[in-house]
Amino acid sequence: MKFNQFFICLLLYLPFNLFGQDIELYQQFNGRYDYTAIGNTLNQFENNLDQSFCGTLPSSQANLNLSPSSTIVAAYLYWAGSGFGDTNVSLNGSSIDAQQTYTVQYSDALNGVLTYFSCFADVTEQIISQGNTTYELSNLDISETLINNPGYCNNRTNFAGWSIYVVFEDSTLPLNQLSIFQGLEIIDRNVQEKIIVLDNLNVIDNQNAKIGFLAWEGDNSLNFGESLSINDNILSNPPLNLADNAFNGTNTFTNSNTFYNCDLDVYNIQNNIQIGDTSATIKMTTGAFDSNGVFRADLIIINNIITVLNSQLPDATITIDDYVVNCGSLEIELDYTVYNVNATDVLPANTPIAFYADNLLIGQTTTQNSIAIGESENGTITLSIPNFLEDDFLLTVIVDDDGFNNGFVTEINEDNNLAESQIELLTIPPIQILPSAVSCDEGFNSAVFNLTTIFFEVVDTSAAITFYTSIEDLEQNENEILNPDSYSNTTNPQTIYVKVATPPCYEIYQFDILVENCPPYIPEGFSPNDDGYNDWFNIQGLYDIFEQHELLIYNRLGTLIFEGNNSKPWDGKANKGLNNLGKLLPVGTYYYILNLNDPNYKSLQGWVYMNY
Prior knowledge:
Elements: E1 24-31, E2 33-41, E3 59-63, E4 71-82, E5 88-91, E6 94-97, E7 100-108, E8 112-122, H1 124-130, E9 134-138, H2 143-148, H3 151-154, E10 160-169, E11 176-187, E12 193-198, E13 203-216, E14 227-230, E15 233-234, E16 262-268, E17 280-285, E18 288-289, E19 295-296, E20 300-311, E21 317-325, E22 331-340, E23 352-357, E24 360-366, E25 375-384, E26 392-399, E27 418-424, E28 432-433, E29 437-440, E30 448-449, H4 451-456, E31 465-468, H5 471-476, E32 487-488, E33 494-502, E34 505-516, E35 525-526, E36 550-554, E37 560-564, E38 588-595, E39 604-610
């Protein structure tokens, strides 16, 4: 007998995406949402009542009739049967490939290992396009499986069927939390119950709260301890679904009891969940002792569970939108967005946000405004990175976090509050020191330098270069030297900083330019005749260079006739002795002594000829 069979759950065989078969949350909708379901069996009769057939029907139909005020937002197709799976079917003539395939297995002493499958596909676009109409599923073919392994029919577990869940939005609905759980699990005499806990609820109204499920292989004639309960309250919907026979080949949406070896049921649970509840426990069971004291159970393959609860909570999430790091800076300018999308309540203002670098708190802020359902708020913050952290670190941003991993806002989902990004600071290599450049003083400790030539004599690069007189100007791209090929220094010595573009950042070089006094050039004669040429004793490289110099002029008799300095050159007239008459001295040879008053130079002396 079927109820004496036992099953061993093995690992899931997945020809498509690798999904575990445990029933777990697949999708959640928060807002003014509800759902309906359609589907049909491909079995001619219930297996435990009629052994006259082994195959399944080639197709079956179901009608979708949604209210005109309802807007379809999602539609999911499930199909299932005996074997490893037919992963391609047709819906109203359109080919549908499985996006996920689940399998479960059990081993029977008489029939060996038997496998059962369920496939899933998102058919939202097709259902939106075709709307209210008759839907026919075809090409679900398990005949080869049944032929090659007669154990399915011998064991009366040959079945096939399908269902479409349609999620819709309607402005007349309350704010609901609609949760779809899916996978594929067996409950039987060995695994007698399945428990699912819904956390993060805030039930504000229990009107029209409901739970539905899709299960396979249930038999009306095998009612041994089958129950569906929420918060330990067993659900029933007589006469269609009795408290001890939850899985009995029925379709609540059409009030049908000929949904052979399939169950597509929904229960009102408004009396089983209370206002203020923050969680709900769903339990499915099978197994009981019969009147003869023999323990028996039906084989139930649970495919999905769906709940609709009037739960009013926000759901804060955050994204890192952009960030700016500057070369050599330990600061990050970060753009982020806080969302309240998958929510049924407003996210309050002043919700805290914490920023971590490698788990070290480096910044905090809050949301500025209340964020409505489906809305978001942008923000910008400047974060300072401690200099003891590595240049490459993980930046973590968490909304509803006080900086000590504590949250204040009760949310629909407490596990989706963070965003992360690997950040690399733009470090500047150490400044490279180049040899100094020296030039002769051209006056007042200044000279003209070709900075470009000085740099390229030492550094070979094709990168763009710019020159600055301070490291601050270089870092801020301010006050660039605009004439580097002909630059007059402003101090002596002066440091020149060179920025070499090496994306994404740059290199820095520096060198000093120095001005020194070079030996003056003393002419052998001059002619103070006011012709504009050599009208004074012009000692080149002396004036405004050796600014403390002393010039002494003597006549041929050794008499001092002139004493000059930086502001008093010799113009051929005397300013000492008897000849100090303000007139030009006679043509002739005069003796000079030039005291440079520079520790690097001795006094210079010689003869100069003056002629008119």
